[in-house]
Design brief:
167 residues, alpha+beta, Chemotaxis protein chec, two-stranded antiparallel ribbon, 5 helices, disordered C terminus
């Protein structure tokens, strides 16, 4: 992974295997060469179902989003369930994490996995689940083209900044 940005980015697609001790090698591009031996990530249940791997900063954002739901019906029950399917995982010297059995079952993962980068986090899917969710290259290309459309492009001349001094 390029270390120029000092910000971890989870990009691309990788295939992997969960071994009999429930360990999964995290894709090398998702790790920095300078990562400490005791590096930890958060792992939680994601959509699909899947497992999502992310850093502490992303975890904090999710905690804030969840706290904003306080007072809604079933909040306590659902917040407890989210916590039940969340854990901290440490990366070992071989770049692997150990996934709790209940989380593998919840994500319907047995042995093979597909790791999909989602920029701020990495998603880990059973291949058959990803096959159902994969939008395909045509939809991805259409999405990329929609980002380039003139209606969504902001140019330097359209952006104005007002600077004022206060004393």
């Amino acid at each position: 992974m390029p270390e120029k940005t000092n910000k971890r980015e989870f990009l691309s697609r990788f295939e992997g295997v969960v071994d009999c001790q429930r360990r999964l090698a995290i894709p090398k591009p998702w790790r920095f060469d300078s990562d400490p031996e005791d590096l930890s990530f958060f792992l939680c249940l994601g959509v699909g179902p899947s497992l999502e791997l992310f850093e502490y900063e992303e975890f904090e954002k999710r905690q804030i989003q969840m706290a904003a739901k306080r007072g809604t019906p079933d909040f306590e029950y659902l917040a407890t369930a989210v916590s039940m399917y969340s854990t901290t995982v440490k990366i070992d010297k071989q770049g692997r994490i150990t996934i709790p059995q209940h989380m593998l079952l919840a994500a319907k993962i047995s042995t093979k996995v597909v790791c999909i980068g989602s920029t701020a986090f990495g998603s880990i899917y059973a291949p058959e689940i990803w096959a159902q969710r994969d939008p395909g290259t045509e939809k991805v290309i259409d999405f990329i083209l929609s980002l380039r459309s003139p209606s969504t492009t902001v140019t330097q001349t359209e952006t104005k900044v007002l600077v004022t001094e206060t004393q």
